[in-house]
């Protein structure tokens, strides 16, 4: 589905993307910042100090006597370009809150909350006779609970369920300057509720002092699990002396939401990853993710999307985990990624690519760590043929590692 251009200005403190008008909106990373610091390559990643929600099977790496609390806050700056026009915006937000706990020696659990998608756009096309305005806002959040089970020393299985909730409001307006023509404003307000399921596997093969790791993740498409309650407002008006005079309420659908409840067909997502690691000192991996967005629909109505895929490559290195010098215990990460997006501009798919670097600093006499990560990338099509976005995201990560159970000593 093509976009109407040129772009309309957006607020300086609002991270707006015209491509967020499609499907759920702009999909969020839904992974730990530690994984994003490696370009997103983390299907095979497992660590006792990281909650890797990208693959729930990784939870078996948690310490059996400790709990984990992980949270992150980011500052996002972006620049939108189209032809000779250039606009910029920024935002600051809490990325997520994760908690990981041991249940038994072979059973670990994790839960948390994070954004699932965001809708934020405002653009228009106008001439002397007609103005077309499109505005969207809102988003969806995810509360998840995952459990992982270690069946053998090297093989783990994870299952995760997420509850999705949120609201998206999209307004489309055709405004005629001539009062002889009826202007039309349509507002679609959708409230989403539903369940998302995910399964994961991880398997390690020891090779001397190193480990060759495999990771798989699968999210099925089950339409009956996610519903959208839609309310539609259509208002006809005429522009008289610069003001609006309502002349016709074409549709004002506020009936029982159950009567307007529609099934959401979410895409099937499949991903796998490979890694080579040496304890907590060194880890390198590569991921590939495929998402079947061409099947996405709400109430049987599709959004002209294409299947998407993403490839990631990255790693993490700590010079000396148990060294006496502080800098030798700092973990350094780097990664790159490339993604062919589901959104089409005409027949051309959007492309996203980026580079990330990160530093994880240990706290003295504790396994708690604080991290600083930077991701820079681009998204969209060529600025001469459409809207192109460049962005820079700076993220602060805090990973609290505390004793969950401590046996008392007899005096």
Question: Could you list some keywords that capture this structure?
Answer:
disordered N terminus, elongated, mainly beta, about 400 residues, Porin
> Are there runs of 5+ residues with pLDDT below 50, and where?
1-13
Output the CATH topology: Porin
CATH superfamily: Outer membrane protein transport protein (OMPP1/FadL/TodX)
Strand % is over 45%
Broad structural category: mainly beta
SSE diagram, text form:
Blueprint: E1 26-27, H1 33-36, E2 66-82, E3 85-104, E4 107-126, E5 130-152, E6 155-176, E7 183-207, E8 210-219, E9 226-240, E10 243-253, E11 261-265, E12 269-278, E13 282-291, E14 297-298, E15 301-302, E16 308-317, E17 331-345, E18 348-362, E19 369-380, E20 388-403
Antiparallel strand pairs: 1-4, 2-3, 2-20, 3-4, 4-5, 5-6, 6-7, 7-8, 7-9, 8-12, 9-10, 9-11, 11-14, 12-13, 13-16, 14-15, 16-17, 17-18, 18-19, 19-20
């Amino acid at each position: 589905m093509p976009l109407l251009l040129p772009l309309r200005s957006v607020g300086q403190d609002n991270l707006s993307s015209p491509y967020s008008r499609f499907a759920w909106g702009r999909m969020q990373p839904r992974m730990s910042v530690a994984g994003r610091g490696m370009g997103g390559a983390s299907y095979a990643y497992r660590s006792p100090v990281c909650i890797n929600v990208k693959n729930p099977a990784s939870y078996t790496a948690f310490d059996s006597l400790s709990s984990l609390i992980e949270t992150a806050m980011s500052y996002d700056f972006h620049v939108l370009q189209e032809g000779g026009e250039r606009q910029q915006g920024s935002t600051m937000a809490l990325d997520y809150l994760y908690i990981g706990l041991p249940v038994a020696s072979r059973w670990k659990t994790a839960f948390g909350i994070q954004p699932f998608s965001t809708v934020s756009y405002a653009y228009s096309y106008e001439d002397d006779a007609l103005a077309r305005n499109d505005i969207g806002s809102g988003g969806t959040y995810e509360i998840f609970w995952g459990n992982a089970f270690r069946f053998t020393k090297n093989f783990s299985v994870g299952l995760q369920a997420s509850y999705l909730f949120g609201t998206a409001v999209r307004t489309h307006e055709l405004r005629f300057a001539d009062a002889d023509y009826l202007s039309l404003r349509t507002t679609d307000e959708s409230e989403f509720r539903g369940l998302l399921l995910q399964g994961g596997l991880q398997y390690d093969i020891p090779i001397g002092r190193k480990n060759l790791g495999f990771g798989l993740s699968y999210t099925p498409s089950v339409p009956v699990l996610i519903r959208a309650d839609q309310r539609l407002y259509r208002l006809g008006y005429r522009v008289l002396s610069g003001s609006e005079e309502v002349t016709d309420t074409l549709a004002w659908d506020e009936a029982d939401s159950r009567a307007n409840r529609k099934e959401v067909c979410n895409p099937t997502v499949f991903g796998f990853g490979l890694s080579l690691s040496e304890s907590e000192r060194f880890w390198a991996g590569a991921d590939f993710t495929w998402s079947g967005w061409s099947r996405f629909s709400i109430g049987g109505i599709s959004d002209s999307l294409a299947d998407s895929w993403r490839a990631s490559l990255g790693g993490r290195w700590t010079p000396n985990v148990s060294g006496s010098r502080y800098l030798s215990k700092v973990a350094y990460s780097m990664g790159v990624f490339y993604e062919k997006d589901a959104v089409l501009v005409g027949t051309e798919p959007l492309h996203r690519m980026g580079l990330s670097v990160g530093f994880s600093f240990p706290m003295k006499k504790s396994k708690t760590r604080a991290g600083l990560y930077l991701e820079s990338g681009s998204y969209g099509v060529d600025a001469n043929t459409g809207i192109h976005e460049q962005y820079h995201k700076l993220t602060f990560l805090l990973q609290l590692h505390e004793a969950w159970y401590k046996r008392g000593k007899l005096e």
